[in-house]
Amino acid sequence: MPETYIYPEEKNLIYNKFNNYILNLTDLWIVKPSNLYAGQGITILDSIEKIELNEFVITKYIINLDLINEKKYDLRLHVLISGLKPLRIYFYRKIIQRA
Known about the structure:
Blueprint: E1 4-7, H1 11-18, E2 29-33, E3 43-44, E4 56-60, E5 79-84, E6 87-91
Antiparallel strand pairs: 1-4, 2-3, 2-4, 5-6
């Protein structure tokens, strides 16, 4: 899991870490809007002052990705926890195959 910060929950941490941030190709950070999906609205962090979103996530860009057949992938798990004593966890089982 890459280093990640959530705004506004971690507002102070974000401003402390990125207050003097200068775009650096060996230390890239990406900004993801919290209300979009499928890569929509993702930008490379240039300056914390230029972000015009009310809610977002800043995460460290992973340079050497783990790829399958030279393509990115993600794992999405849908889980229901129905009890803690005893612990009872159910996983939704649906297989999606994409070409």
